[in-house]
């Protein structure tokens, strides 16, 4: 059973309500609350039609609109996958040059705009699922390691993941208006 960390003295939480200046980017968060990354899996996924898969839709916008008005200093997206063959799950958002389109760019812009609409800073979490790619997505995923995850859901990974897929997406993202980007490699 989970044990609570014992609290020995009272702690003043008021600092959480104070502004936080990020010096390198010169951005100011209104407070120190951050909406954590929570994979949404709300988008269309069709293996045979990747061009129309993983485009932010109205359900995702509605969700982020609620969070945008929830008083967070910073809002982080869930997984936004940089390679359509390495999703963490069907329904992930995808941004990749091979399936780039005006429709996808404007949907991501709308998402970024929505996230910032209540005054929060917006961070997009770029991810490559590596060895956590589900078998249903890809039987032979790439990963930085060839040690597989020991569960039935994940495929046996091959060793060979490059940061190039991240770099290409960063160039695309410059045109979309998130404040920052967080780069993640799941169980790489
Ligand atoms: C439903 C769910 C979805 C999550 N999705 C992501 C995700 O997309 N990206 C990520 O880095 N972490 C993800 N996480 C991890 C959380 O962001 C968080 O780091 C983790 O739950 C630990 O925080 P906690 O101790 O407050 O629960 C997820 C966690 C949960 C419970």
UniProtKB/TrEMBL annotation:
Name of the protein: NADH:flavin oxidoreductase/NADH oxidase N-terminal domain-containing protein
Keywords: Flavoprotein, Oxidoreductase
MF terms in GO: FMN binding; oxidoreductase activity
Pfam families in the record: Oxidored_FMN
Segments forming domain NADH:flavin oxidoreductase/NADH oxidase N-terminal: 30-159
Domain of life: Eukaryota
Record has Flavoprotein as a keyword: yes
Organism: Acrobeloides nanus
Keyword Transferase: no
Cited PANTHER family: BINDING OXIDOREDUCTASE, PUTATIVE (AFU_ORTHOLOGUE AFUA_2G08260)-RELATED, NADH:FLAVIN OXIDOREDUCTASE_NADH OXIDASE N-TERMINAL DOMAIN-CONTAINING PROTEIN
Gene3D superfamilies: Aldolase class I
Classification via InterPro entries: Aldolase_TIM (IPR013785), NADH_flavin_oxidoreductase (IPR051799), OxRdtase_FMN_N (IPR001155)
